[in-house]
Amino acid sequence: LRDAFASGLFQRKLQQLESTSVRGAKFMKERNELYLSVQKVVLPRYGFEGSPQGVLDMVKALTPMVMINKEMRQLGDEIDRLIGRGRQPAAAQNKTVQNATRYEVPRGNLQQNDAKPPATDPEPEPTPRR
Q: What share of the chain is helix, strand, coil (3-state, %, to 5)?
């Protein structure tokens, strides 16, 4: 994603959108559509659906790694800069990820053409009542 967001074509489209659009709901919709034009091509290579739901699934899967891995956090910061978004403080970031409204798209140790996203821990068994 970093490479695609850094491309001249994407950067020109983003610059044009930012210079011609008034900030508001329409701008946010068009900006998210621009993001998705890249994400829908890249995400399936890493086992995620090329859709808004796939973006949310990716964010959910990678958030724990971003929180503990400095390299992934730096990559996330670079992507945020490339897409014209600043990084939020950690507390706000955690809340945003929980609300699944932010299009943060870090890339890390996933290998291209992985068949599925990283596994998550299973739900814990409920404790029996006595």
A: 60, 0, 40
Distance (Å, rounded) from C-alpha 88 to C-alpha 51?
A: 24
Question: pTM of the predicted model, to two decimals?
Answer: 0.62
% of the chain residues with pLDDT over 90: 53
Residue 47 region by backbone torsions, left for phi larger than 0, else alpha for psi between -120 and 50, else beta: left
Identify whether the C-beta of residue 65 lies closer than 8 Å to the C-beta of residue 108: yes
Rounded to whole angstroms, how far apart are CA atoms 31 and 106? Answer: 18
Number of residues written out for the chain: 130
Tokens 């992934």 belong to residue: 72
Once rounded to an integer, what is the mean pLDDT over residues 84-112? 47
| Spatial contact of 68 and 78, defined as CB atoms under 8 Å apart | no
Strand positions, DSSP E, the chain: none
Mean pLDDT of 111-128: 46
In this structure, what token pair is assigned to residue 17?
């959108």
